[in-house]
Specification:
Elements (H helix, E strand, L loop, with lengths): L3 E5 L12 H10 L5 E5 L1 H4 L2 H4 L9 E4 L2 E4 L1 H11 L8 H31 L6 H23 L11 H15 L7 H11 L2 H19 L2
Parallel strand pairs: 1-2
Antiparallel strand pairs: 1-3, 3-4
Helix pairs in contact: 1-4, 1-7, 1-9, 5-6, 5-7, 7-8
The protein binds S-(P-nitrobenzyl)glutathione (GTB).
């Protein structure tokens, strides 16, 4: 039986791959695991059946046999532990790849998402113009620190790993706001990730859902 993930029935990102099911799809594609997708409306995400799986009423979730998970960090880590290809065998290299997964989720993603959400939610508010430079600074600070560390390396630490997968997925959101324009190595790093066949398959799969939804309108 394939694992089943949940994703937006109609993603607000219009198929740009910014919703977080993308990172789970990509991980599954990297390890060659086929999967099924249950598409949910916003209303269905708040109903008891989904809340039993995800206490915060969000996507994605992951179900495989008797296991149900939410939180993309936990899901991608689980996939990476179950299959070869996303975490190095060497124990120290493996710990560093996991460190980069946490860095993506805990350190780099928050200021990027905070800026993105403010633009959507606070744009009409009187404080928005004053707050934006602060949010901008916070996001750019992290990006410049990451840029400095990456330098001209191909991947964050040795070979491609789940750390790169998670970091690149976070950078997608930064790139969608034009924030990578000042960091050519991060832009090139993101392009390298996007060129991976597994990424392209995952991207095409989520885009197809959006396109099919439009055709049914
Ligand atoms: N920490 C959780 C994880 O990593 O799994 C966060 C999950 C999450 O934020 N899920 C979002 C969700 O379900 C979808 S991905 N939101 C509905 C809700 O909370 O009610 C976030 C997202 C949404 C839209 C865009 N976009 O339009 O560009 C980008 C990202």
């Amino acid at each position: 039986m394939n694992p089943t993930i949940t994703a937006f029935e109609r993603s607000p990102d219009r198929g740009r791959g910014l919703a977080r099911d993308m990172r789970v799809r990509w991980a599954l594609e990297e390890v060659g695991q086929s999967y099924d997708v249950r598409h949910l409306s916003f209303a269905a995400m708040k109903e008891p059946a989904h809340l039993a799986l995800h206490p915060f009423g969000q996507i994605p979730t992951y179900e495989d046999g008797g296991l149900a998970l939410f939180e993309t960090g936990a899901i991608v880590f689980h996939i990476a532990q179950q299959h070869a290809g996303l975490l190095p065998r060497d124990a120290n290299a493996r710990a560093r790849a996991v460190m980069w997964m946490f860095a993506a989720l805990n350190t780099v993603e928050p200021p990027i998402v905070e800026r993105a959400m403010a633009i959507v939610v606070e744009r009409g508010e009187p404080w928005f113009e004053q707050r934006l430079p602060l949010l901008d600074n916070n996001a750019r600070k992290r990006l410049s620190e990451l840029s400095r560390r990456l330098g001209d390396a191909e991947w964050l630490d040795g070979d491609f790993s789940a750390g790169d997968l998670m970091m690149a997925n976070v950078l997608l959101r930064a790139n969608a706001m034009g924030l990578l324009a000042d960091y050519s190595n991060l832009a090139a790093y993101l392009s390298r990730n996007e060129a991976r066949p597994a990424y392209r398959r995952a991207f095409a799969a989520q885009l197809a859902v959006f396109t099919a939804g439009q055709a049914n309108d």
